[in-house]
Specification:
26% of the residues lie in helices and 19% in strands. With 154 residues, it is an alpha+beta fold. The protein has three helices and seven strands. It starts with 7 loop residues before the first helix and ends with a strand. The longest helix is centred in the C-terminal third of the chain and has 25 residues, at 112-136.
Amino acid sequence: MVDYACTPEEVQQHFQSCGTVNRVTILTDKFGQPKGFAYVEFLEVEAVQEALLLNESELHGRQLKVLAKRTNVPGMKQFRPRRFNPYMGYRFRRPYVPPYFYSPYGYGYESSQVQKANALHALLLKEIRWRFRQISSNIRLDGWGGLYQDSEVI
């Protein structure tokens, strides 16, 4: 951990006693602000052991934590289970159902008019299904394909 106001030149001067510093990289976030971490690359391998002795030394009034770079072992990827998403619910993800009415603005955006049209369409379908259930008990079909309800042609 390095101070947020530290420059790469100051970090290089701090570690110059260990060996020849090849490169200093201070990590920044997407806004360009330092994260408080830095990488120091040495030309000699022995300089790394000397740099580890500077652990808990102070730079800009802040205590440094010095660690050797960790190398990943190929094929040893850690399994990380997925985190619970409160918006996903407890079940598996449902398959994609396309909307009743496609937006002229593309996939990512639905105008309020399109949202109202989709809601109205869903309500109309619900009403049609409900009415069909109400009258389906007394509807009969004759041999000619005509629908009759209580002896009236529909």
